[in-house]
Design a protein that fits this description.
Keywords: Membrane, Transmembrane, Transmembrane helix. The chain is mainly alpha-helical. 84% of the residues lie in helices and 0% in strands. It is built from eight helices and no strands. Helix 3 crosses helix 8. The termini are far apart.
Length: 184
């Protein structure tokens, strides 16, 4: 809460959200939630900062994937023993295309894996940006809105249920997608 009330909290949120989209393992919700709790009247400003910073970080992740995958990123992935994870991500891109970016942007799936992979796999940049903006925006505005409406009680519930909420929304989107592709 001390960081959330600090005068540099919006900058810290922007920085955290930016680097989380590329490499950092801690989700920005851990700073966004207390910031909204301490200043609910600025909830939409904070959600906007998180969304814009995340999409900008995602764009950098995309470019890193496009330009530095083979010389730098792929050897690290292989060294860490994550080649099978990369294969899974590539399969998801093959099956779902830009939708996987939207799902990763909203859900508990690490968004950073998909920003770099989208660049490496040559996903069209504009659809990538659109899917990222919608997915990340939905996530951050949902968190900010729920905390603004529910206060401290809602913050603890969100911490407890955010993964479940994310997966339920992802499953609903997949179900709707499958339904529409089957009926077309």
């Amino acid at each position: 809460m001390q960081w959330a009330e600090h005068k540099f909290a919006p900058r810290a949120l922007a920085f955290l959200t930016f680097i989380e989209s590329i490499i950092f393992p801690i989700p920005p919700d851990v700073l966004l939630a207390p910031m909204v709790l301490s200043k609910p009247e600025k909830a939409w400003n904070f959600a906007t900062i998180a969304t814009v910073s995340s999409v900008l970080g995602g764009a950098l992740g995309y470019l890193l994937g496009a330009w530095m995958f083979e010389p730098i990123i792929e050897p690290v992935i292989n060294q860490l023993g994550w080649a099978h994870k990369l294969e899974q991500v590539m399969l998801w891109f093959e099956q779902w295309g830009v939708w996987v970016v939207f799902i990763a942007g909203f859900s508990p799936i690490p968004y950073k894996l998909f920003t770099v992979s989208a660049g490496f796999l040559g996903l069209a940049f504009i659809p990538f940006l659109i899917a990222s903006t919608i997915g990340r925006g939905m996530r951050f505005f949902l968190v900010a809105g729920l905390i603004k409406l529910g206060g401290k009680e809602m913050e603890s519930k969100i911490r407890q249920w955010i993964d479940v909420i994310g997966w339920v929304v992802v499953l609903l989107i997949v179900a709707v997608y499958i339904y529409y592709t089957q009926t077309s």
